[in-house]
Amino acid sequence: MASKLTGTGVALVTPFEANGRRVDYAALTRLVNFVADSGVNFLVALGTTAETPTLSADEKREVLACIKSSNAKNLPIALGVGGNNTADVLERIRQTDFSGVDALLSVTPYYNKPSQQGLYEHYKAAAAASPVPVMLYNVPGRTGVNLSAETTLRLAREVKNIMGIKEASGSMSQISYILRGKPQDFVVLSGDDALTLPLMAVGAQGVISVAANALPAQIVSMVRLASEQKYSEAAKIHLAMMPLVDALFAEGNPAGVKAALSILGIISNTLRLPLVSATEGLKNSIARELLN
After folding, report:
1. Nearest CA to 266 among 32, 39, 92, 6?
2. Main-chain phi, psi angles of 266, to 5 degrees
3. Which residues pair with 206 in a beta bridge?
4. Domains (ranges, CATH) in the chain?
5. For residue 78, what are the β-bridge partners?
């Protein structure tokens, strides 16, 4: 299983119709085909980038079903299921149809700031409930709590059904300690597009990428070169992409990447409140970089 979720994964956005009231499933199908045809290694459904908190339970089921039915290349799929109420997370896991899903991606509980022991117990319970392997997701800039290297390694060693981590702490030191001490089959993926190449240089096995929605070919090429230890060639792509990657996150995620995808004609530039579309100035900056 672990080898299925390495390389380039794309955290898929959820396209909406122009008024934002309904999911645009035709556009979602175009997006899945676009990234798959560009060579990404796996898909991530219903993560942060998908604006999942704004989706109803029915929409979540339909979005996952659309991704599965659009997945003509049979790419592995990781499904986001997380929250800050452990009992609710366990119940949603039990109610989910995991057919066609290869892993569960679960963010650390947010807002209520559990201790490291609380995080350990939360993930241990989620792993016991999940019928598929679990990938931890650490993004303290969004959740307000950091899953420490020590707790990550404890989970990796002690909980059989935990297979890896999407690490978006932004700390090279923390992630380096995870890479230094992890079991051999435990997968470490970058959760930050700007740090993918540096992290792969010290042992990370790929990325779950936001930018790969709009730049799949470039991200795939960079990650492949890094995996082959061709770092100077990978660095050329990394450095060329940096202005656009920075622009994609300048007004939050997924405002920037949805603007980019609308410029490419794949989806409409529509988000659901409380998120709003990128400003015209940022859209113009993204267009200049994207079409250059």
Report:
1. 32
2. -95, -40
3. 7
4. 2-226 (3.20.20.70)
5. 44, 103
Catalytic hit among 60, 123, 137, 258: 137
Radius of gyration for the chain, computed over Cα atoms and rounded to the nearest angstrom: 18
149-205: pLDDT as tens digits:
999 999 999 999 999 999 999 999 999 999 999 999 999 999 999 999 999 999 999
Residue 249 has pLDDT above 60, yes or no: yes
Q: Is 166 a catalytic residue?
A: yes
- Amino acid identity for residue 87 in this structure: A
Structure token pair of residue 136: 């931890």
HSE value, Cβ hemisphere, 13 Å, CA-based, for 70: 23
Reported as a single tens digit per residue, the pLDDT across 32-60 is 999 999 999 999 999 999 999 999 999 99
- Please give the mean pLDDT across all residues of the chain: 97
- 120 as an active site residue: the answer is no
The candidate with the shortest Cα–Cα distance to 209, out of 171, 176, 249, is 249
